[in-house]
């Protein structure tokens, strides 16, 4: 059965207007002003994610940054879950991951993607290790009793401006986040970053890992203890957490 039902308009402004659609592939977000743009959905069975799932290895920089070694799989709090792609890779590697996402629309897409994946044989065993919580990670970390080994942060989608290089499927996400940028000025974004990083340092038992674009300065200009350079990004690792707080 093919459904294509617009179920709600979820964000309105002078420029951008988003609506939900539900079709045979689940929930997706559409930009009303540009229906040619591919609707955004979380699909852990997509070709790109399937390729990443099948080729992921403990030798990759994300695995080394997290500290996976032999049979040691640290517990992870992904405090900036987004579309859950990094968390999915970490769960594929064997880690238990708690994901926190504060943006209600992104959290709703991610919840839908996780639910669909839980019904697919090869993916169910992976998403069983992923526990999504909608809310602000700063508040969550302050109240947390059982601390994770690692807090993982990927706070910023690097390109928020319109650019030919931006992948088609990311364009709608960037339109959504541009709306957020208009609501939050630079100072608020900086405060969120600083509070996130400080809460992460207090919460992680062993290390904080921050994903950064390859050539960008470390978060809040805080020099990491180790860096792992990936193909398109970098992972900054903070150890000796007691001394940094
Ligand atoms: C760059 S995305 C993360 C992408 C993610 N690593 C992935 O693989 O899909 C950053 C996300 O962090 C979320 N975020 C930012 N600050 C947050 C906070 N304080 N608590 C929870 N989520 C937050 C944003 O809403 C956004 O969805």
Summarize the structure.
This protein is of the alpha/beta class and 245 residues long.
Task: Summarize the helices and strands and which ones pair or pack.
Layout (H helix, E strand, L loop, with lengths): L4 E8 L4 E7 L2 E6 L15 H9 L5 H6 L9 E3 L6 H9 L3 E5 L2 H14 L3 H7 L2 E5 L2 H7 L6 E4 L14 H16 L2 H18 L3 E7 L12 E4 L3 E6 L2 H4 L1
Parallel strand pairs: 4-5, 4-7, 5-6, 7-8
Antiparallel strand pairs: 1-2, 2-3, 8-10, 9-10
Strand content: 15-25%
- Classify the fold: give the CATH topology: Rossmann fold
Q: Can you count the beta strands?
A: 10
How many helix segments?
A: 9
Can you describe what's shown?
The protein has a single domain, classed as 3-Layer(aba) Sandwich (Rossmann fold), CATH 3.40.50. The strands form 2 sheets. It has a 7-stranded mixed beta sheet with strand order 6-5-4-7-8-10-9, with helices on both faces. It has a 3-stranded antiparallel beta sheet with strand order 1-2-3. By secondary structure, the chain is an alpha/beta fold. Helix content is 37%, strand content 22%. The protein is globular and about 50 Å long. Strand 1 and strand 2 form a beta hairpin. It contains 9 helices and 10 strands. 34% of the residues are buried. S-adenosylmethionine binds next to helix 3, strand 5, helix 6 and helix 8.
């Amino acid at each position: 059965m093919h459904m294509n039902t617009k179920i709600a308009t979820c964000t309105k402004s002078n420029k951008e207007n988003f609506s939900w659609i539900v079709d045979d592939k689940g929930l997706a977000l559409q930009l009303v002003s540009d229906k040619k743009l591919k609707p955004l959905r979380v699909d852990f069975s997509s070709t790109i994610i399937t390729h990443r799932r099948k080729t992921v290895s403990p030798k990759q920089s994300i695995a080394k940054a997290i500290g996976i070694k032999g049979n040691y799989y640290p517990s992870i709090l992904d405090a900036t879950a987004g579309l859950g792609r990094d968390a999915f890779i970490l769960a594929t590697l064997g880690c238990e991951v708690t994901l926190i996402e504060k943006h209600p629309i992104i959290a709703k897409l991610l919840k839908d993607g996780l639910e669909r994946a839980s019904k697919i044989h090869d993916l169910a065993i992976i998403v069983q290790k992923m526990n999504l919580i909608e809310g602000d990670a700063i508040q969550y970390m302050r109240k947390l009793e059982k601390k994770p080994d690692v807090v993982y942060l990927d706070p910023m989608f690097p390109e928020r401006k319109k650019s030919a290089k931006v992948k088609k499927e990311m364009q709608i996400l960037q339109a959504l986040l541009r709306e957020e940028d208009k609501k939050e000025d630079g100072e608020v974004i900086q405060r969120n970053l600083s509070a996130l990083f400080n809460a992460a340092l207090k919460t992680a038992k062993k290390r904080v890992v921050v994903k950064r674009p390859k050539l960008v300065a470390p978060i809040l200009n805080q020099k990491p203890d180790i860096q792992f350079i990936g193909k398109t990004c970098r992972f900054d690792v903070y150890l000796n957490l007691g001394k940094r707080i």
